[in-house]
Amino acid sequence: MTVQQRATLEDVARLADVSSKTVSRVFTHRELVAPETVERVLAAAKRLRFRPNPIARSLRRGGSTDTIGFIMGDLNNPFYYKVAAGMERELASHGFSLVVATTDDTAEGEERVAEALLGQRLGALMIIPVADDQSYLEGERHLGTPVIAIDRPARNLVADSIVLENHRGVFEATTRLLERGHRRIGYVCNPASVYTQSERLRGYRDALAAYGVVDSSRWERLADDLSIPADRFVADLLGQDDAPTALITGNNRVTIGALRVLRDRADDGRTALVGFDDFDTADVLGVTVITYNPLELGRAAAELAIERMKDPAGFTRQLSLPTWIVERGTGERPPSERITA
Amino acid sequence: MTVQQRATLEDVARLADVSSKTVSRVFTHRELVAPETVERVLAAAKRLRFRPNPIARSLRRGGSTDTIGFIMGDLNNPFYYKVAAGMERELASHGFSLVVATTDDTAEGEERVAEALLGQRLGALMIIPVADDQSYLEGERHLGTPVIAIDRPARNLVADSIVLENHRGVFEATTRLLERGHRRIGYVCNPASVYTQSERLRGYRDALAAYGVVDSSRWERLADDLSIPADRFVADLLGQDDAPTALITGNNRVTIGALRVLRDRADDGRTALVGFDDFDTADVLGVTVITYNPLELGRAAAELAIERMKDPAGFTRQLSLPTWIVERGTGERPPSERITA
DNA sequence: GGACGAAATGTCAACGCTGTCTGTCGATGT
DNA sequence: ACATCGACAGACAGCGTTGACATTTCGTCC
Hints:
Oligomer: homodimer
Order of helices and strands of chain A: HHHHEHEHEHEEHEHEHEHEHEHEE
Largest sheet of chain A: 6 strands, parallel
């Protein structure tokens, strides 16, 4: 393959017999150029396959603002990629492009990746915070790059944020189980020490407390090691003496793990189950879930970013997106009084 | 929020009392600068929150080659995002960043989006082709931007490509069903008129032909309208007179649709099912699938791109990635002789 | 002691583009 | 006939950085 040189304004100008400035004008303020000149320039440009160099253009204009960064845990996770999808759609419709970077859900990853992304001049940065502290972004924010925290608020950083109504979703789900007569309700999550989970857990505990159940620690399994499959915690919980009659799982991974355990135990519909996060085959499996619209989460975040880019000095905003329950069967099971030791 | 000015080499140089070139050197060829000078410069840079401007840098160096574009159908699809995930990982480990753009699986979308992405100077372009013709990329390729076609070969364009062994996977799956005694084997897919599906369909027909089944059109449902849920085609096929005893579904959407239909019909394990593409809960549901490694597909594509960037003049390569069958139950059912009209 | 070379730093121009300013030319008005 | 003006095109500089080359400094060697 022969590689040919990329044409510049100058080349086009020479071919069209005008100055380079005129060519530039054709590509920016076309109305200031005489029609026949425009035509001549365009013909020359086409012949040379000329395309204005956006690098040079943004250097001249100061900062490339049409690329937006998104730092997330891992593209290989339905939640994250759906958020990214919603975001990409919204951004594309406004002429922005999306650069993605993943942290592998580790705090070190986050700062490293952020550093790399910020190297490029970004119009804005969206991030699903993992680390305990985002103050390292303070400098960049100060330089005018809007930062939008998604799913979890940023810590030690003034930033717009958009989160889910985690507490409310789990509170309602738990209340429904309580209304149906369940008292021994389990809660399993992994990881547990992130904002979303602590909110969800709070929802669970608050609902229980409203029904007089104060110490639920016996039915909680709060893990923090993603290398251990959630299955184990669920199996452990269901195997204990006064096993719960209902189970709430803190995210889709745990829900799927729970399904696996219930199948293996031939539980056969005795244990009620409500999972946080919807997933592809939840309807086929009849699983009741606490859901929300991840595409909308991404879309709204993108919208927030675009708004903030227009008005960098405005007040930061904290939005939260509704969650709701989709009843499909597993969550509507009554408590089964099985024989316990 | 007060927005402060971004520091330049010049600012740092002034503060550190050296020339801007020395500051530049500190950030590029540090070994050429005296240790104490380096220290002084770094201190100044830190104080001013200086970060070299990559725009200016790449303008000077000619072309920004550390951003790779990926054009895919829709991020909101497990297949695409897993490919993207594998890609992102590989690229990140080599210091590249990934810009994603989606076409909504339409040909017009593809060219529009490609045009927009190519506006930025990309190091390489990866694309899952949708349109019938990628010759519009010829110009860019000629200017030295490597183009890698993923999942489907590019048409009318010289490009590296990496695809799956679609034919072989379906051929084997069909053969296994035939070996188990199935003769009426259905094939459902939507869309049908894309490279991957025509390959898969060929695998299905070739396997049947090897067993003497020549005209299988009675059991084929090849649709091309994504707005119609696959459920309908499956239901239609299973409802016909000599309904198939086994079903092969051309992608995960159809597989999940088929599961829904089988559940609704209380089919109860009578119809065998093998689906192309694995999915999250396939193990819970016991679904036999033809699978492959989508992360590896992305990773290999990224590798190919990186290689091609180093050697733009080399011979283009066509790779194909293995597919294999994971038996989980639904594919191992024997033909059930139900009463047919 | 002066020539020499290596190390450290500096000067300058250029990457491709666009904002600002200036210049040209023909048309218009009096 | 001449001043005036609008429409258009060009000259120039500079965005922030770096490669090529120049310069300075200093230790070393005969």
